[in-house]
Amino acid sequence: MLPSRSRTSVLVFLLPPLLLYLVAVVAPVGQSLFLSFFRWDGITDMQFVGLDNYTRMLTGDDVFWRAFGNALGYLAISLFFQLGVALLLANLLTYVRRGKEVVKTLYLLPAIVSTVAIGFLFQRVYSFEPTGFVNQVLQAVGLDGLARPWLSDVNTVLAAVSVPEGWRFTGLYMLILYAAILAVPAELEEAAKLDGASAWKVFRHVRFPYIRPVWITTTIMAATYSLRGFDIPYLLTNGGPGQASELLTTYMYKTAFTSTDFGYASTISVFIVVECVAAVALIVGLLRRRGGVLL
Amino acid sequence: MTLLDTHRPSPVRPASGGRPPRRLAVARRLTTVLVAVIVAVQVYPLLWIFLASVRPAQEFAAGNPFALPSSITLENFTRAFELADLPRYIVNSLIVTLASNVLIVALGMMAAYAIQVLGFRFSRGVLALFLVGIIVPVQVALVPLFINYSRVGLLDTYQSMILPLVGFALPISVYLFTSFFQYIPRETYEAASLDGAGPYRVFFRITAPLSVNTVVTVVFVNSIFIWNDFVFANTFVLSEELKTIPLGLQNYIGAMGATDWSATFAAVCVTVTPLLLVFLVLNRAIIYGLESGATKG
């Protein structure tokens, strides 16, 4: 502690950021919780309904469960890229001798493009008429039968809206994991190799345990960011066709700003927060244990 | 001195015999190929956007939009500027990004200074309160803020976007600054205090100037998200004059009948350029910052 500090100086530095944070983040969470017990369209009087919104959400709303399932699928596909591909790449990069800096820069590039632009891009990539990139590639390799309008086929649309989300941040997570791998003491890996361990064994028993703390952080970041994914499905399909690519976030948004059902939308918001907290608890619980398996 | 120790001398034991160097070379080559393929996957779509923006519009509509352009044109850019008020969107995005960044850096640094350097009884609790914000999804704030804004007349203003953008960026900002402040040696502060410098002077003369690297990281990471923010702008802004780039880009879609894709991708190129330039110039500092920010603490 700074010897010359005074109570006033602490307040001068702490209050402005704390107040803004309370108004923009903390109060809205509380307010959502409050609103979730009411029925309100924003115009007429608010009507207290107790737990009705929660009962409706958990027992009577098929769209909600559909959206929840979709959100998990969306999460799985983005984690495949953001953790799986990113970890593989980070490891491969340690064996590359030249051009590492260029590679890192190029991997990060998609992260700086706006989701609206990514939406435009993937609309073209997936399009059927005129033939988009994916269908062209399929035709080129003789798999014409698989060509389809990826965004209007109910069986493929969820995967189609999830891939761009995974793709755009793969480089970011790769970079973080790569930095963690660089911090693994080279003697350790060297010693394991001299004892005849294969590259996989070195990774499994030396490298991975060493980067576990960073891996936990990365997993938490990737999971919570994917659970709040919104822009790309909203822009590409608006949750359609039907509810085939509806996520909890897009469903909440439409409930609030299309159906102006603020109470029920807040109930879904509260659920999204709970879901994120549960995901973090689960990740920490699963990964912290020493002998825990590789996720 | 410890640095020298980690710079390990070559192991005394000779390299374990038996492993054929041929296999190693093949593995290395495979690795390089795989890395290159994934680079292509990451970069090709962006290159495609650029090619679409310089490709003659008829060729884009009629022919194969995935081949190389037969000739290069700037007409798409002309139309991009005619179809919508592109400069206005860019100015709006600049205003929102600059104002938010100033607040995120200043407030983040202030909070971290109070928590980490000045210290007070509940400092750990306050830090925890900030850190919890990292996992709060932004969507939870949309309905409450929309209601509150409409009550106090803040809907459809720059502030309506800036407030939540700053609020949701503060946790990471506070976290990065507190982690950095741990590394400023106590003695620096004690010496300054002995010279009679108060907490304000120490902040402006010592802490802030030392934090330049962290500031670069914080600003860059946030600029990406703020420059590209869609959800807050889409929820709180209605009028054309306040539209930021992500909202403005949507004006290109179907507004005048069929979408002019070439002009749209030209507009995308124009709007990506400022961020891209900053990224390429600050590249090393940014990558270094991301790496150390994520792995420390």
Give the secondary structure arrangement, pairings included.
The complex is a heterodimer of chains A (295) and B (297).
Chain A: H1 7-35, E1 38-39, E2 47-48, H2 52-60, H3 62-95, H4 100-108, H5 115-125, H6 133-140, H7 157-182, H8 186-194, H9 199-227, H10 231-236, H11 248-257, H12 262-288
Antiparallel strand pairs in A: 1-2
Chain B: H1 2-6, H2 21-54, H3 57-62, H4 75-83, H5 86-118, H6 123-132, H7 142-152, H8 158-181, H9 186-194, H10 199-210, H11 212-227, H12 231-236, H13 245-250, H14 261-295
Mean pLDDT of chain A: 88
Could you spell the SSE succession of chain B in H and E letters?
A: HHHHHHHHHHHHHH
What is the class of chain A in the CATH system?
Mainly Alpha
Tally of distinct domains of chain A: 1
Query: Looking at this structure, what is the CATH superfamily of the largest domain in chain B?
Result: MetI-like
Summarize the largest interface: chains and residue counts.
A-B, 99 and 101 residues
The top level CATH class name of the largest domain in chain B: Mainly Alpha
Instruction: Characterize the main sheet of chain B.
Output: none
**Rg measurement of chain A, Å:** 23 Å
Say what the CATH topology of the largest domain in chain B is. Answer: MetI-like fold
Structural classification of chain A:
mainly alpha
Indicate the percent of residues in helices of chain A: over 70%
Unreliable stretches of chain A: 291-295
Low-confidence spans of chain B: 1-18
Structural class of chain B: mainly alpha
Silhouette of chain B = globular
Transmembrane segments (chain B): 30-51, 89-115, 127-149, 161-181, 202-227, 261-282
GO cellular component, one term (chain B): plasma membrane
Family (chain B): Belongs to the binding-protein-dependent transport system permease family.
Keywords (chain B): Cell membrane, Membrane, Transmembrane, Transmembrane helix, Transport
